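Minimal example, chain plus DGJ.
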Amino acid sequence: MIHLRGATSDVVVDAAHGVPVIVHWGAPLGDVDPTNTARALGRPHLPVGLDVPGPTSLVPEHGSGFQGRPGLTGHRHSGTAWAPRFAVEAVTPVEGGVEVVSVDPVAELRLVCTLTLGEVLRVRTRVANLGDTPYQLSGLHPTLPLPAHASELLTFDGRWIREFHPVRREWGSGSWLAEDRSGRTSHEHPPLVFAGTPGFGEWHGEVWGVHLAWSGNHSLLADCLPDGSRYLQAGELLHPGEVCLEPGADYETPDVVGVYSAEGLTAATWGFHRMCRSLPVHPERPRPVLLNTWEAVYFDHDTARLEALASTAAALGVERFVLDDGWFGGRRDDRRGLGDWWVSPDVYPHGLEPLIAHVRSLGMEFGIWVEPEMVNPDSDLFRAHPEWALVTPGYEPLTGRGQLVLDLARADAFAHVLEALDRLLADHDIAFVKWDMNRKHAQAGGAGGGAGSHAQTLAFYRLLDELRARHPGVEFESCASGGGRVDLGVLQRAERVWTSDCNDALERQTIQRGASMLIPPELMGAHIGPARSHTTGRMHSLAFRALTAMFGHLGVELDVMALDEAESEQLAAAISLHRRFRPLLHSGDVVRFDPVLNGQAPAGFAHGVYSADRREAIVAYVQTASGLSLLPPPLRLPGLSCDQGYLVEQVPLPGTWAHWEGNGLVLSGAQLAAHGIQVPHLNPESGILFHLTAV
Ligand code: DGJ
């Protein structure tokens, strides 16, 4: 019996039997005998059940009587080894946790489960084929049990330009399943789920969260069995025949990452944020405010215009200039050119150097867009190597945005793309790469025509890792038609995600709120877009756009040369405001407060960042829709230091008319939590910003 103590939770593991079983994951238990925890929770024999109930282990076994979805599925070609039952072979302590090796001598399989606990619970499993015939793996899905009272779910729905929408679901009984076959993390089903006590909120209730740190196909299951036991299961979704383990071969799962808080969702999500912040790749220097050229010029690349855009951007306080799609090969629109990673002489007759030199002379960094995993049939690369496409022979390939996926699991295709990108980065002064991925996998046939999404995801990681190793000074952004590849797998090799192609500030309020449940603000790309959103047609004031985008890694994505003088001044003020608060925004604890509702629908969102020492805070209240009452309820701020006095000031947003009567009041943390401050009447789609400093 192993008792692990983490930052916010304890885990008790029974490692004495076949596959380790988590008997408790939740509130700290203190200095106790963990054996009694297991005894107290022992499940009795039921009248119609098996004499010994099958445990919900880290990889639950049908072969041991588990009645839910087995953690390991597969078989040998003879049909055997389909329902293994493992016996423990070795239990070894590892830093922060334990590794348990289990073997099934009948099925001739070895299972290794590694579990560590710190800010987060991390579980990784590996299955190896010990036999002398191939083992066809169908799935290996680590499983985390939950207590009976975790009977409400928070899941995430989404689609392009509407990612990360939180959805509450009662979970009295039965199961909820989300599967993704898009070959990327997906807009529709990011592998993230929370469960908690009924009605759990941002600051109350017990909450457990589970995320799969993986950028490919996946399956996420929340299941409640007829005996009342609950579990969350997360793993890679494998297509039929996709992973076959030859004798001696093994397969390892991505990490399943768990978080827990006894005090609501906000604190639970700090676990994910702290894990991100502890990664070696996590950026340490201030996040440069960037200008992205996409919604400013689209494919209309013209060096003189881009240079003027850069000059204007620099004068506004922008620190990084990112040249988006359209600079290479025959890429004059979105139907051609992908794969031809050489600077187009048609639009850049003197190469990119003059533009880069201009950008650098303005004191800005230069960034560039690529989509390395793709190829257009109308490209030199495809004409030379049609066999490199990730398609299934015998079928007409299915294009998406006029493009196909390139089979990066092929050594020749991989080497070609690696060399092309390596040359691009070696030959130019590039500090940042926006790495896009715009076509979902469909009939993605790899070597021999078999399913290739698994190998492709690993090849994507390898390619990015190799480029990072060759160009350690370059930062990378993960983008997939916006927020289609946001996960803690890719964030082990990227400094930013493009959260959504939607720059509409109203939509962004929900998208960023959802994304903030996984990633901290400094990783979350958030841009001030044009006054009229290109993806929704809505109009928003600069104050509202700035208030929304400032809670991320700020960017500007509009034609800054088309702004009039007043608008330019406001934009410069917004950038400077972000730069002023950036140290706090990008280091503190993200806080969210429960939405103000109008019936069932949210009408107001409040969120902010508290400094780790709780001596400073920045908080926004946003009126997303017209409220039920003229005034929103007072904004209460739990979680500051009760006895500490705070000077509360309204931060004037450029162009805003919102006015808070109490400006300059000093209130204690206890007052702020108990009664809070009365927010003024606000128009829908506007907001107000407060800064709190300890006095
Ligand atoms: C999709 C991305 O999400 C956009 O930001 C932009 O880079 C386009 N692709 C370019 O094709």
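The CA atoms of residues 125 and 253 lie 6 Å apart. The two ends are 49 Å apart (CA to CA).
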